[in-house]
Amino acid sequence: MKVYDAVIYGMAALAAFLMAAMMVVICLDVVLRNLGYQSSAHFFTFTEYALLMVPCMGAPWLVREKGHIYVEILLMSLGPRARARLTVAIGLVCIALCLVLAWYGFGITLRDFLNAEKDVRSLDMPRWMVVMWIPLAFFLMAVEFARFLWRRENFLAPMTDIV
Fold first, then answer.
1. Are residues 48 and 120 in contact, defined by beta-carbon separation less than 8 angstroms?
2. What is the rounded distance in angstroms from the CA atom of residue 19 to the CA atom of residue 57?
3. Is pLDDT above 90 for 95?
4. Helix, strand, coil proportions of the chain in percent (round to 5)?
5. Is 57:141 a contact under the CB 8 Å cutoff?
6. Hey, what long-range contacts does 91-100 have (CB within 8 A, 24 or more apart)?
7. Among candidate residues 128, 148, 2, 125, the one with its CA nearest the CA of residue 66
């Protein structure tokens, strides 16, 4: 469990670092252009890769922290028992969708690895290294939703009381 927790928090920390690095790179790019210098093409490529990696790395942690967005209007109109049943149903659907997306993402990642596909930008990158974060993220999100259901814990953030 400690290794798993370290993976979740490590990915979230890396996502936070990448967001800060993107800010620095974008600011540096703007400053260099305004000073009349040519900025590096790698700045744009780094930002593109980071824009895919950040949500993938942060999403499992966000599920764990109940930071995902949901619309509570239907849940608020139900009684406690029906609300609990619907929450479990939503959790099962979330698990199923995350596992399907992880499965297809793994297939694409494996195909890109076996075919030695390259993502050609300012630097050539093995494509599987770019897309591998997608199946990993969705698999870990499925695990997080399953952990909530296993512990019979509501995975939704506390709802506001109706006054």
1. no
2. 11
3. yes
4. 75, 5, 25
5. no
6. 91/145, 91/148, 91/149, 91/155, 92/149, 94/141, 94/142, 94/145, 94/155, 95/142, 95/145, 95/146, 95/149, 98/138, 98/139, 98/141, 98/142, 98/145, 99/138, 99/139, 99/142
7. 148
Confidence category of residue 158, pLDDT binned at 50, 70, 90: low
Packing angle, helices 2-34 and 133-150, rounded to 10: 140
SS3 64: helix
3-state SS, 7-58, equals: HHHHHHHHHHHHHHHHHHHHHHHHHHHHCCCCCCHHHHHHHHHHHHHHHHHH
**How do residues 51-85 score in pLDDT, each as one tens digit?**
999 999 999 999 998 887 777 777 778 888 888 88
Q: Tell me, what's the pLDDT at 161?
A: 47
> pLDDT by residue (tens digit) across 36-53?
998 888 888 899 899 999
How far are the Cα atoms of 75, 101, 127, 139, 156 from residue 87, in angstroms, in the given order?
Answer: 8, 21, 37, 20, 8
